[in-house]
Write a structure and sequence with these properties.
Layout: E1 2-6, H1 11-22, E2 27-31, H2 32-35, H3 39-49, H4 51-54, H5 60-63, H6 67-71, H7 75-84, E3 93-95, E4 100-102, H8 106-112
Parallel strand pairs: 1-2
Antiparallel strand pairs: 1-3, 3-4
Helix pairs in contact: 3-7
Length: 114
């Protein structure tokens, strides 16, 4: 079963959902804010994908952090920050059961599900 993780009002999430639906791929959506996220799950993703890939430094939540937080970020503090502010996790995170993919590009999704 395909699971898409993210927040529902994200434009990239909307594009990815539209692509999956247009390609008749069933999926479930996991809303970080509503459905939560465990430290174990996030740590697993960090171990597999790297905290640098998962931490969204482009969003307003990151920009609102103090310079001290931004200048001293490491794996431990990034995990803590992403658990406190799930909107800071890049999205979507797509889990096919065997592969995890961060972000959305239609060409990459087409390859993944070819």
């Amino acid at each position: 079963m395909i699971t898409m993780y993210g927040i529902p009002n994200c434009d990239t999430i909307k594009k990815a959902k539209k692509w999956l639906e247009a390609n008749n791929l069933e999926y479930s959506f996991h809303d970080y804010r509503k459905d939560g996220l465990s430290e174990e799950q996030l740590t697993g993703w960090v171990n597999e994908l790297g905290w640098e890939l998962l931490l969204n430094k482009r969003g307003t939540t990151w920009r609102q952090q103090s310079d001290e937080v931004k200048n001293n970020i490491d794996e431990t503090s990034a995990i803590k920050l992403m658990l406190e502010h799930p909107a800071m996790i890049k999205r979507p995170l797509l889990d096919t059961g065997s592969v995890r993919k961060v972000g959305f590009k239609d060409t990459e999704y087409a390859e993944l599900f070819a």
